[in-house]
Amino acid sequence: MKKRKKRKIANPLRFAVGVALIALILVLCVVLIAAIAGCFSAPAPAVEAPEETSAPTAVPTASPSPTPEPSWEEQRLSSIEHYVRAYGNCPDEAAIEARMAKMAIDPEQKMVAFTFDDGPRTGITSQILDVCEQYGVRVTFFIKGDNIASHEEDLMRMLSLGCEIGNHTWMHTNIEELSASEMREEIGKVNDAIRERFGYTIRLFRPPYIKYGDKGSETRNSLVALMEEWNMAIINHTRSTHDTYDSYNAEKIYSRGVAETDELGKTLSGSIILCHDKQQKTADAFKRIVPELLERGYQLVTVSELLHYSDDGFHAGWIYSSAK
Ligand SMILES: [Zn+2]
Fold it and tell me: Which residues pair with 267 in a beta bridge?
């Protein structure tokens, strides 16, 4: 009984002391945290430059560090080198360097962009690429999406030779017959397949049959909006080689390919020339066209290269028939 009484008196005392101790510890903790926080936050502005702005995290990006964005030309060469290394079958660094040396462009020299639609086609596209490799020239291929899976070798070779891949829809569809959402699907599928397989971004679209609606039509408006959204341009042509005409043999195709002016008086320099990599006669003509034009001082470049060095430049949503 006595013990019980003693405890009853002792426990409240102990309890009070305990509470006091805990309170003291808590107060000390708060004081300590406040002191530490003060150490890190308060003196900081004093250490920094007097005109320091409010956000210290902005310092690394806001500083005018000497790391400018790579130029278009640097990006172009680095992309080509990537594909030369990946798909170029170059045995050593010297071979890569030799390949890259052929990618140089002289902006002051005449340029022309040859384009090949509807491929790749087995046995024909490879001949066009042989010519590109032999002479170190580049062209643009407006491919059909449903040819991608069966022609990966041709596509890899295009990229390793610095050639450009453009979009010619998945099934060679007349986009004037499509709704806006069908158009998105038909064109977007090709971009996606090429990006997924090769990590390559397509920038150019050539409408099949060169049909893309009249100015102000729903087709035209939808297409231009899509091109702007995807940072792409629509590529018409300055001159056709008429290589799909039955009456045009290799000789006639060659003549149209190299003529300084066409029947409309359009000059070859700055032109976008339409061909198709699907018939032997076109390949035969191209084998003669290239050395002839090189002899005359022309550079054969891709459409994007031609546009980049033109006064107009590349603009998403624009329609180009030539480079001005
Ligand atoms: Zn076509």
Answer: 261
